[in-house]
Structures are given as C-alpha cells and as structure tokens.
Amino acid sequence: MFIVPPPTRPVQIVYNPNATNAPNGMTTVALDTSNTLGHPSGSEYQLAVGEGTYTLQDDLHLATPPPHPSEHTSTNPNPLATAPLPPASGVKISLSRINPKRPPHLYKLANVGSTRSNLATYSIKESEKESRSSHDTSSDGITAHLANAAGKTPVFGEENALLTPALGKDGVKRKKPKTNIVKSNSSFISRVMPHEAMTKRIQEHNPEGLLAFANINRAFQWLDLSANNDSKAQHIIKILFTKAHMLCHDINTFTKGPNHLDIIMGASTADIMWFEAFSQKYARINKNAVINPSPIYQIRWLPGSENLFVAAHMDGTLIVYDKERDDAAFISEETGPSISIPRGTDTEYRPLHVKKSVNSRNQKSNPVASWKISNHRINDFAFSPDVRHLAVVTEDGYLHIIDYLNEQLTDIYPSYYGGFLCVCWSPDGKYILTGGQDDLVSIWSLAERRLVARCPGHHSWVSCVAFDPWRCDDRNYRFGSVGEDRRLLLWDFNVAMLHRPKAVGYHG
Description:
The protein is mainly beta. The chain has a 6-stranded antiparallel β-sheet, with no helix packed on it. Strands 8-15-16-17-14 form a 5-stranded antiparallel β-sheet, with no helix packed on it. The longest helix has 8 residues, at 142-149. The radius of gyration is 23 Å and the shape is globular.
C-alpha cells in the first residue's frame, strides 16, 4: 500500500491573475474533509526491482483539514513573497503493528559489558517460500529491537539516581494520562471525531494488522489499514486542534501492547501531547511553552524507555522530557560547552552546549536534559542501533554525531549544498544516510569518519531516507529515498563499491 499525502508544504492561497472571484487575483484552494481510497491499475503503478515487482494495491489519500475559524490567514498580493509562514510540516505518517514481525539480527555486542560493536553472522536473505508485502519493511521498533538483541542496552541517565523510579509494594507504579480526549472541554482541542463503531473496531482489530497514525496540519488521524476496503479509509478517531498544527509524532514501541499504545505529538505552539490511543486519554507537556517556546519539528521516544523522549525544537535545541514529570520554568544550568574534538571535518567547530545535563541534581521537574545543537532548525534526528549515538541534521546543512550518553559532540559534517532534511542509520550502525536540499542522498561511514558516496537521482529535495533491514547483510545494503519530486527510489550498494580508487598517474 502507498499512502499519498498532500504536498509537503501545503499552500492555502494561489495566485491567478485572471481570477474574478477574489481581489488581487488571489483564489483559495478547496481543502478535503474526508479520506479517499482508490485501487489504480496498470504498468505505471508497478515498480520492477531485482527481487521482483512491487504493485500498488491501494491508493489512500489523506484529507487536509480546513483552517480553524480563529486562525488568521494573511494574504499577500505578491506571488513571489518570501515572508515566513506559520510552521507546518504537511504530513508525517507512522505505521505500527501490535505484534510485529521482526527482521533478522544484524547487530550485536561483542559481550554484555563491551562498548564496541561487531556484525553478527546471521543471513539477511529472505526465504523464497516466505510471502511478504511491501509494507512489511516498516522500521517500527527496529532500533530498540536490535539494541535489545545486542545484550545489555545502555540506559540514558543510569548514573543519576534521581532518575530511577521509586519502587512501591507492587513495583514501579507508572502514571497514566487522566483527561478523556472525547469529553475534553480544553480550548486546545477544537473537535474530536471518533468512529461510530470505534470500540468494536478496536476490539476486532487483528494484532498483526497494520495501524497508521498521521498528523496533517491541525489534524491527527488513527487508521486501521488491515480493515476491509469500506473501513480502511475511515478513521478510528480524528482529532482537530484549535490553533496548533501537529508537526510530528512518535509511537513507543517499548510499551505498546494489545491494550496500550503511547503516542507523543509535537505542535507548532511548542505543546507536547501524550496520547494513549486505546483509552483515548491524554496529558499535555510544555503546556503554554513554559520550558521552551519554540515549535517542535521532530520528536522521538528514547529507545527502550517507558517515559523519556526527545523533542527537537525549531530554535536548534534538543530537550529530553519525562512524560511522568511536571513542568516548571526552565533556567539554563550551562557552565560551558561540552568539549570533544570533532573528526572528519574541516568546518568551523561548533561545540555542544549543555543547557542542563542528565546528571543534574535538579530532576524534580522537566526537562531531564537540554542541549543546544545549532542556531538553526533541527530537521531530523535518529538513534544508532546500539543506542549510543544520535545523528542530528540541521537547516544550516550540518550532520552532527552526538555521544548522547556522555553528552558530547563527536563529529560534524557539512552538506554539499543547502540544509539536510532527513537522516537514518544502517541496521548494523556502520553507515548513515542523509537527504536534503542538494537533491542528493549521501552515505557517511561512521568508522572511517568520512563521506563515502553521493547518490544523484532525485530532481528535488530529498525528504525521507530509510534502510530495508530485510535486504541488508554485512556487505550489501538496500535503502530507499523519497523526494519532493514525488519519486520513490530504491538503491543497492556493496561495501566493495565504497573503497577509494587507487591513484592513477598521468602520462603526457
């Protein structure tokens, strides 16, 4: 199944010099109110690759919600105006299964206490008798799974006893969100639209079926893609927010179960919503921007953690939050930059500024930790499979590698041109992919600390990159990329292809 979103940067106003129904030639764009499902056919909907042919079975178009009446929409008669618009990231989609099928292990540690990584000898080749549809390549929970398979998973902040949850008679008692979103009277939420048979659909859902969660401007949808054709396009629940645009979200694969699904969402108003899908209850974090007023462009759970997550604010700050802690006005505790010599780059050294350390003695309230990465927007970040490093890409065109357990910047690399928009790790943690405004997919070697390949093929910005863990082994890698040219490209590369060529002498 392919899910076709609206444009990445949706435009509400278009310029038409011949328009007669609006002043200055400005005409409004009609927005959708409901999802539509199609079943296209023909050779143009087939993708032939080495292992066979992928066929588009369902074409699901997600509706773009209309703006809230209280939203002020300013119109500029100049069609070439470059004035900044309110932050909106279009669509971001997460696919999840309650009982997912795991890919084979590629990564493991040499021993339980080791900090060095080695490749396992497992084969990644699929069984020829095995049936697998195209959406089974989802990376849902792969990072946490590979880290757990590796032995002892490193724990962020394990040396700070103040972050250890208190034990009661019945063990650790976890907090739960308390406010029912369907019955909420908060002005933050405009409208909640549960499906008329929501309870029945949840109870009858196949645990191995595919669930989809999507934020689309000021809307958030929950869909069951394993339902029949009549119900596949109908949301289980749809949430409309008043003024906040949900820019990102993430699912906690560590805590999910048949009756529990923790989701966090980051908003353009800097608010964070913790939503438990099955109970339809929620809580707000960084409410009214008490900790950081900057919009949240990316958000992810810490792998293997029940309650910690990282939010990337558009002011270039990464903040670690605890969903169970209260918020308090944040005052920087910075004593100086975290010094670590970055290798692999000849660009100006930019240290990591630790505004609050995870080892701080002040852990009564959020944030748990705060790091200033850049003065520009953080577009994406990803955890390494061994859960020891963080790859961060920024709007000013830099890839940062951070040893986040020790809160140190270890490497920084520049783009060919423009900003980086997306980043991901190979399943073995050896390579990093980036895509961005230079229309290229770049491959970086963590061991060699250098750029090893640039892959041209897109005709516009590259917005997403991902490895296929089912088709990677210790020498061969498969990854895909999606660009704003509406192209999905699949790539194969072999380690032998990445060696530097021998120098050839010139003979006149």
